[in-house]
Amino acid sequence: MSLFLVKFRNVMRDMTGTNPSILDTIIDKGVVNAIISVMVSSVLRCVYKGMDIVGSILITLMVRYPKLKDPIPPIGSKQILRESVTVIAEKIRTKELTAEEVVRTFIGRIHEINGQINSVVDERFQIAIEEAKNYDRLIETGEHDLKELQTKYPLLGVPFTIKDSFCVKGLKHTAGSYYRKDFTSVDDADVVKILKQAGAIPLGVTNVSELCMWWESVNTVYGRSKNPYDTRHIVGGSSGGEAGLQGAAGSAFGIGSDIGGSIRIPSFFCGVFGHKPTIGLVSNTGQHPPTSGRIAEFLTTGPIVRHPRDLPLLFNVMIGENRDKLKPVPDMKTIRILYMEDDGGSPFATPISDELKLTMRKTVRFFEKKYGIKAQRANISKLYHSLEIWANGMSGCNVPTFCEELVLRERKINPYWELLKFAFRLSPHTLPALILGIIEKFVYIGNKFPIHKEMIEMGYSLAKEIEEMLRDDGVLLYPTHPTTAPRHYKPMSRPADFSYSAVFNVLGVPVTQVPLGLNSNGLPLGIQIVGSMFNDLLLMKLAEDIEEGFGGWVPPCHDATVNLTSITN
Q: Is 262 a catalytic residue?
């Protein structure tokens, strides 16, 4: 028995006169540990709340938000911008549209909106137009009939964008790092090559957080991206520039990557669908920072779209021969829906907002009515430790530290010195990156204690528990984030809120973020749907169901008012 517990027993014996053997029995049953756990959680919750309050006060004093929204230009009559990838590709093949017309329309949309949302950071517009013309000439030759075109080039002439962490030949490849601001890709990332082979046309790369390790997309190379639904709010990160562009209909589809919610959180904030695939299905080659070993299993590459019907189409192209690993969609009459409204009250994360709890309940009722089933409230107690599971998983991968990555692995920065330089605007790094560098030092010290191994083992145990719980016919509905998109800088006072999404990267399971209309402030609502390993197609089917029931993507600006009450009614 530890010295603390011995002293505790003696104090209780003196105060109550209870037999020491009885006290030992109580202690052995873990009552004291439970009390200590509650006390620690309460203290941490107070500390976290204090951080939020102090941070909010500092942000209020230091940041001047515009009093009014700065709405982006409406889509108006440009029907192409509203169409799905599936429809656009079909219309190009059947000559109802030309690839050049489509590409020029999306380029025009980027010119309209990018000054306000700062999403696209480098482009290849003229090259894209020439590639579109070549595809139009290919169609005109009649060399391939419609079936051949659909089979060989399923994305013929469809323009897309991709986050700046991926290589796109001829474009800047900074990953939000000041030290990479002059890097230009000499080749394409694997996923870009695959999409090009299917006929898709890259338009440009989009903004990310510094080295893709923060959940607001801001860096010292290109600045801060802004939410198309309200530019005073964040787009999320690290695929934030991409999600913001998709929400604003800036390209037909986008590609992001996800190591801690980096596809799902931005997709949630920007009102679109985002899919984090099962680990190992889509190649990550051609990204920066590069990954290896266990950490490479946390990183996944996936699509971001406005229409869920496009997810299977794009996913089928992106995974190539790995499509044989996917589980078939089960009989939907036998589907099992499980749900959790929060993580059990972790002191590290903000409590789930009431409007998102209401959103969850409405989604549950929708599925119950649609399939004639009774959803089950799940109780996965290990999710309470989501942040610790993710953080210890990341720190236990034996890869270069973040302080080394910040200077291209050539040396290691001193985050305290850089923080001092930052105060005088002399550091090339963002404040979140420096804070992460400092936190990292404490995390690595923590790796020497038993709790590190315990959290690693808990991650493996949780993965097994969820796999056994969901099997082939079950899914878990779970919050993507505790609140809708916060104001700029707000993540600094709520740094751990990404943990609701990040934990699933450690588990390796597929997850799809789905939009569920807008709240009374015009900001997107949504949840994530979690499946068992290789059950990606089931999640995509349910995403289509949710679009049918809730309306799916709602265009920003004044167009959005038609769906403001879609959840609250």
A: yes
